[in-house]
Amino acid sequence: MKFYNRRIFDDLKAHLPKRQITVLTGMRRTGKTTLVRQLLSESGIKQQFYFDLERIDNRVLFAEQNYEHIVRAFQQQGADLSKPLLVAIDEIQLVPNLPSVLKYLYDNYPIKFIVTGSSSFYIKNLFSESLAGRKKIFEVYPLNFHELLAFNGLNAPNLALSEATQFVASTYQQLRPYYEEYIQYGGFPEVVLEPSVEGKKDLLQDILSAYINFDISALSDIRNPANLYKLIKLLSVRTGSRLDVSKLTSIAGISRPTVENYLYLLENSYLIRTIPVLTASPDREITKARKIYFLDNGIASAVGELSSGAKFENAVFNQLLHRGDVAYYQLKNGKEIDFIVNKEYALEVKETAVEADLKQVRDLAANLGINACYVVGRDPVKQFPAFIWGGYL
């Protein structure tokens, strides 16, 4: 099996020798299972078992009320529990009592667990409460642009923002087609590796259907999946905009509590992410409205007719996620900065950027005491100090 370079893998590998349970969580088909198999291949523990809980027989095994029956099942498959054992379990949210099972086995046997799950809500709440101190959580997202390049056999330097301002025309010409593909089709590994446009579109529809029919259904009793899909479509065309729950309720014809419940589920199952406004003076700035983004451009494009600018801004958001905490800044008069990263960097996003955009972001950032300001552009028609081509992020 061929393994590709993922940024998160070094952290996962470093945690592999530790006693704690290694937990990978993220949306379906972001590559969690492949990362698990890569970890298994690099572990020094010779006794290894892999269980996919989408298989009914594996769910029955781990649903055993007497946990020693699970131990005997391991032994019947050749496990020597007097020696270290590595056990990988996929999709743990499918067995409700699994946290108790893991706690018992962890406390009583020399087993190193690697587990995956598709629900932040389950992992961070129910799962965390019963395994306090016994696990470390790693979140797996669709590929960022640097990882997409690696999947295509190309290398991209990991640049600091100050270094990313150095524009090189030859590098831009080489990477531009891949960046445009990233903006349009996102970073799900299967989609990136699929060569045809129609194939990419079909895969994205399949991923979205599986997400609604399996991941969301496992978390909540969704009585009307059509309403959920309608809400997702409404959110996609509002990518990069402030979230107005009242307007969504009115347009969708869904009750406000249901809309709020859906939004909670969508964010905690890794489809969307909302970011807060950064405030310096709460009496002057908008303090409550959050902006919405999709955690994959391909999914956002698959469900809604996004503008070219919205697709680009959403791609930049996903690229900035690996750099730290992301917020935005806006005054009541409507002037805003698209992204503030770690309260240290201010970035304005423009498909075709001009130097006046830099002046505006600097003027606004002065309110926050931020000096590091940049303008991120899609089309480098004109370069100027602090201009960053999006593919360099």
Short note summarizing the structure:
Helices cover 44% and strands 16% of the residues. It contains 16 helices and 12 strands. Strands 2-3-4-1-5 form a 5-stranded parallel beta sheet, sandwiched between helices. A 5-stranded mixed beta sheet has the order 8-9-10-11-12, sandwiched between helices. A two-stranded antiparallel sheet has the order 6-7.
Structural notes for this entry:
By secondary structure, the protein is α/β, with parallel strands linked by helices. The chain has two domains: 132 residues, 3-Layer(aba) Sandwich (Rossmann fold); 247 residues, Arc Repressor Mutant, subunit A, CATH 1.10.10. It has 16 helices and twelve strands. Strands 2-3-4-1-5 form a five-stranded parallel beta sheet, sandwiched between helices. Helix 5 crosses helix 6, helix 8 crosses helix 14 and helix 10 crosses helix 14. The protein is globular. The two termini are 30 Å apart. The mean pLDDT is 91. InterPro entries: AAA+_ATPase, AAA_14, DUF4143, P-loop_NTPase. This is ATPase. Pfam families: AAA_14 (PF13173), DUF4143 (PF13635).
